[in-house]
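Hi team, as promised in this morning's meeting, here are the two structures we talked about. I've kept the exact order from the run log so nobody has to guess. The first one is mostly here for context; it's the second one we should focus on when we meet again. Sequence first, then the predicted structure tokens.
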Amino acid sequence: MRVLLTNDDGIQATGLHVMREALLARLPDVELAVIAPDSNRSASARSITTRQPLAVDEIRFGDGGSGFATDGTPVDCVRFAALGLVGDPPDLVVSGINHGSNLGDDVTYSGTVAAAFEGALLGIPAIAVSQQAEAGRTDFQPRGSAWEREEFEVGARFVAELVAMVDRLGLPPRTVLNVNVPAGPVRGVRACKLGRRIYRDELKLEGERPDGRRHYRIYGATPGYHEEPGTDFEAIDEGFLALTPLRFDLNDGEALARLGEFDLATVFQRALANRALTG
């Protein structure tokens, strides 16, 4: 099985290397390729690089292995693999282990989850995995760079076993498994749904220059979440590893049906008439 390992924290991130070692140790037949950003790209979501060529460097690891670092985004990394940078396209994408959780609505901002979604969109099964920064803290802000290898061990071992199971059983098309690992002792694992965030960001003026240019801070407030049974927030709060299946499908069937009540032909005719009047 060919596996692509990527992340959004950068190719030197501790979580990526612990995940790499677990995959190699627990899956002896794996053909593992590593393509990751050359520096931190957290919260880059599904951004891609289209206006300039992408630089790629081969990086040697301490155990003699190697990977590729690019100045692109996590999604770019998956595209590189799919387009043949490391030979045949991967059979599965593993993105992580992220430094900090990716729970609930936060997945829409996450570069970690975006890389997994890119695999799913290309028909490649994908797993995103993230490690909670501190027990009792379910925001999306990692605590900084001081992460110990041991903090990622349980998540790495679990995902390695999950990879083997996905290889045997497969996943539904366009499905991503989003894994979040609680800080501290892990009591078990729960299959669950995404929870809903309560964002508390505020507009704060940080300073103003003599020329009138202002600097504002609009992110950073610790978010909350809606308490609801069966969610990834509940699982993490209770010390369980949260396994959430996600599907990339932006269609809204209910709204599409509602549009049938709209007189779209009249709207279109009025738009043409208005154009004639103003033209």
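And here is the second protein, the one for discussion:
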Amino acid sequence: MPAQPEAHASSPRDDAIRLLARREYSRAELAQRLASRAHPPEAIDACLDALAEDGLQSDARFAESFLRSRMMRGQGPLKVRGELERRGVERTLVATTLAAAEQDGEVDWFELAAEALSRRFTHPGDSPRERARRERFLASRGFDFDQIRHALERLGATE
């Protein structure tokens, strides 16, 4: 049982650095992880402020990294936005990150929807039921109506 005292002996900064060495975390996620390790709330806040000042933790960098990873998975803007907000990233930062990615040409949600659909299905569907299945697939991935319509038209044009 010597592992228990060692876990409490580490500082919030040590634990945060260990977590951040693996991947980016939002401030809220990091606070939650540190709280689960029984660090006092005042120490967590001070630690997170210091990490942000030192440039070791950034919600903006987390949001950009998260966006890129979700784009690689073929997820749409609605799902990405929801996930980022659930992870404690402010709505304005989420909107700014998504807008910047679109403006920089990093992502075209219409093309991403078409690619995701074509990876899963070879044609848009012969019956309304099959077509609805494809629409549900894209909607569950976080694409809006216009993006879904574009993807279906594009899949139909390749036949």
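Starting points for discussion:
Confidence is low (pLDDT under 50) at residues 1-8.
The chain has ten helices and no strands.
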